Amino acid sequence: MAEQAEDRALPPLSPEQRNELGRRLGVEALRFRLHREENREKHFFGLVRWCPMKYAGPAANLAFKCAGLWKRAHREFLDIRVREETFALPDLPEELSGFTILHLSDLHADISPDLPGAIADALASVAGRYDVAVVTGDFNNFTVHGDMVAVSIVSRLRPAFTAPVFGCLGNHDSVRDVPLLEKSGYRMLLNESTRIRRRGSAPDSPSLLLAGIDDPNIFRTHDLARALSDRKSDEPVVLLSHAPSIHLEAARAGVSLVLCGHVHGGQLCFPNGRSMALRHWNFPDHVRRGRWREGATQGYTTTGVGACGAPLRLNCPPEIVLVRLESA
Q1: How far is the C-alpha of 99 from the C-alpha of 106, rounded, in Å?
Q2: Which among 29-33, 49-53, 205-209 has the top mean pLDDT?
Q3: Which residue segment(s) compose the domain that 220 sits in?
Q4: In this predicted model, which residue has the larger pLDDT, 3 or 91?
Q5: Residue 252: which CATH number?
Q6: Cα 304–245–96 angle (5° rounding)?
Q7: Reduced to 3 DSSP states, what percent helix, strand and coil does the chain have, rounded to the nearest 5?
Q8: What is the pTM of this model?
Q9: 3-state secondary structure (DSSP) of residue 187
Q10: Where are the alpha helices (DSSP H) in the chain?
């Protein structure tokens, strides 16, 4: 029955869901995103629609098998590391010092049947060690998808988290995924924000603002001003963004910390860490991987959990990140 549910077509949005998503994301942003999703990856005057990932994946698998590297790269793909990073935030209340966020990105959950188990094992290894978890987009492998496969896998992973989970959409995701993700317990932030506190604390206890924007890189339906509209003066802000291309805008807005992904750290890299792929991103190298700073804004671009195209990684292991916040 579960497999049948996964094979079902991704349902269209009901009028009520469309109105609610428009209220949250922004009416024009929703209209543009739905139009872009419907017309994405169309070629030859719109007569043919195909996803490059469906061809790049088999080509990469074949190349790595011919080179004798496939088994090694697939083992690395499944070897999800736990990384720990500490950031000092100037306006963080002393009571929130030590607040920990578990950061995941780029699950691409349907790329391999071996991946969900590896993710579950990684989550089990950090159980109880974080206050909230965040997933910064790309739940799906294919940029064009009309099924529920990835969303169903991600839904089954929800019980493996030991704290509330927030997220934002990536360029591989559909806005039609949102109702299904939220039904399974993920709280998506669509150009909006919420206040987070230590678990079990009083409603009036110190908090920080957790904001999330829609994909700023491909869809470009992000609205940072809208996401920060409820911010109080001098309130620390942690921003969820799928891609680090928001770095300059975040710095101008005074965001404290940006958590993002998208680039996979290069995924297939030479031993020196340089990506084997041709450069295809529109942001500078200093925000491409790991810790970075733009003015007073700090950021972390994770290498991500899954992989894109083929279930392979080389010299670029996947990771989940425990982000510990400290008062500066």
Answers
A1: 23
A2: 29-33
A3: 2-327
A4: 91
A5: 3.60.21.10
A6: 65
A7: 35, 20, 45
A8: 0.94
A9: strand
A10: 2-7, 15-25, 27-39, 53-66, 70-78, 115-125, 149-157, 178-183, 224-227, 247-252
Give the CA distances from residue 305 to residues 117, 162, 280, in Å, rounded to whole numbers and listed in that order. Answer: 12, 18, 20
73 and 268 Cβ atoms separated by less than 8 Å: yes
Say how far apart CA 191 and CA 149 lie, in whole Å.
Answer: 26
Cβ 139 vs Cβ 170: under 8 Å: yes
CA end-to-end distance (rounded Å), the chain: 52
Q: What is the mean pLDDT of residues 34-61?
A: 78
Q: What does the alpha-carbon distance between residue 124 and residue 107 come to, in Å, rounded to a whole number?
A: 16
Residue 128 amino acid letter: G
65's CB contacts (< 8 A; 6+ apart) are none
Indicate the residue type of 74: H
Q: How confident is the model over 158-172, as pLDDT tens digits? A: 999 999 999 999 999
The position carrying tokens 């101008």 is 252
Beta bridge partners of 240: 212, 259
Handedness of CA 114, 60, 110, 85 (dihedral sign): positive
| CB neighbour class for 137 (10 Å; exposed up to 12, middle 13-18, buried from 19) | buried
Q: Are 236 and 215 within 8 A, CB to CB? A: no
Q: What is the tally of structural domains in the chain? A: 1
